[in-house]
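Sequence and structure are no longer studied apart. As an example, we show below a sequence and the tokens encoding its fold:
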Amino acid sequence: MKTKFVTTIIALLCSIISWAAGNNRLMISLHSEAKANLQNNKLNVPAIDVVAQQFGCTNIHAIKTGKVYVLTLADNANPQEAAKAMLATGLCKYAEEDAAATIGEWKTTAAAPTDTLFYQQWGLHNTGSFGGGTAKAGADIDLLRAWEVEDGDSNIVVAVIDAGIKSNHPDMQGRLWRNKTEIPSNGIDDDGNDYIDDTLGWNMVTDTNNIEDDHGHGSHVAGIIGANVNNVTGMAGVDKHCKLMVLKAIDKTGFVAYSWMIEAIYYAVDNGARVINISAGGTSTISILQDAIDYATDNKVTVVAAMMNTGTELKMYPAACTGVIAVGATDAEDMRATFSTFGNHISVCAPGHQIYSLSHLYDTAYIMMSGTSMATPCVAGVAALLLAQDSTRTAAQIKNLLESNAEDMVGDSKDVAGFDKYYGNGRVNAWRALTNARLSVNNMAAAQQWTVYPNPATDELYVGAVNNESYTVQLMSVTGAVVYTASHAGKAAIPVAQLAKGSYVLRLQQGDAVQHTSIVLR
């Protein structure tokens, strides 16, 4: 396994280096005062067009019309020098060489039989055994109980930025997002979004509407999020009802260009996605990528990305971008998968080792894969459930709900109390997140009678009241067990040092006023 890991990493790095050596594409992000109008392979911004001509620009592609563009330069052009010249015009916010990323897949096995495979999906419901190896009962995202709280909403769209989809797979029937404002196959951009006949999404690799998976990674990732449930075949997705917007940004070799990812993010946000799954990443720090992430989160779109599979503390993007839910992988015994990249930017971890999902090879085919690529869609599916429960939630609120309700100290000795760089805030628990989120809905709707701090807490939890009248305090575990109850007036100090670390619900009541607050003890 270690030899295969080293060989795989070397192969991936070599492919990235070789592509970078021959890369002749430049991304530019314009300041608002630069009014671009892309026509005849010119932006009609004189200073920009002069530089483009100087470096032999042969094609200009709009990632975000009026804002972000990809310029294909002459084969002998130097992208770094072109970037300097573009910045010197004073009209570019950023000018950066396009970079390479790769997918967060670790390994595959042969396609599984086409019978019902839920018993193999230990990440959703771990009974202590499954066909792929040893397991620990309860080392899962607690999905069966979560479905009793919320099982999804077809109005919530999850964008899968990956290698495409096996669209006629039975587990995908009725699950794909459709652009209802676009008339199929008429050769016209009916909705004016700059994409012609994008009825099922878009292929950023070939700039066409062909979203079919020619690699396999995309179908597997999409199935984890939203494969049909209770259709007497195959496996189950985390969300029973969400729609999947397929955006192909990975080619048949597994190669990913940053510009393809960035364009897909803008497309997803502009066309109604509420969650974006990116099971890919690269080492280059691209400011235009961070801008795209900010555009998503500013528009209440949650971005979930794979930490990747280096087994080291190497920063990979977009997982290391600000505002992203960065996901590491655990195995069936609740241990961090050895291949999972770690670091201080990790948010949570999720099941990502020996995961069953769709194969692109033929209809009704399934396959087992491992990687943070598989853990990431698991988290994206839970994010979709949280939005089905309350579609007004922001990206920051979804991130907080997932992090604050994760199960802590489930792995090895590196999984210490509170946040750590190996497991983040812990392994995602869908039931805890949905249960505590449901209580917080009442909290947000009610008049705020109290302030609660610090949260997370370690030794004492303080409650500040707006008046000196008596009120009742109850601290409950996520199962509903009351671990503390008392009456207070004014400011109260609640001792929590002796309580088990994890998630709790604080209930405060004064007359008819009731407030629930999710609390994390570390």
Residues 446-521 form a domain with the Immunoglobulin-like fold (CATH 2.60.40.3080). Residues 1-22, 107-115, 441-447 have pLDDT under 50 and may be disordered. The chain has three domains: 24-97, 103-438, 446-521. The longest strand covers residues 502-510.
